[in-house]
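Q: Convert this sequence to structure tokens.
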Amino acid sequence: MFLTTEQVPQAFAQWVTDSGFNKWTFLLIVSILFFMLGMFLEPTAIILITLPIFLPILQTLDINVFHFAIIMVVNMELGMITPPVGLNLFVVSGIAKERVEQVIRGVVPFFGIFVIVLIIIVVFPQISLFLIE
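A:
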């Protein structure tokens, strides 16, 4: 509520546009931020913390909300399969009855694929938006 009454998201959006950030710089920075947050927090918490701040920026930089949501999901999944707190690593470890270290070794190829997919989704938004256009 404090953020809303003090109009922090709008002020942050204004700062981003005044700083000369373009769409691609913003998406790169946000992707890194979501990846780092995904390593330590649950996706629900990340969404509740960041989305109210980023929505005005999305409108200012003319970024499609659905495209941004897909970028968020892929980034958070990347974070959830990355140590130190990657929640999905512990889930798979418990189900497979394997040590977490063994699960991490198995996840490495998928991590690389996820990064490539994320880059493709960010660069070519038409791929993630073809159903709604």
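The mean pLDDT is 85.
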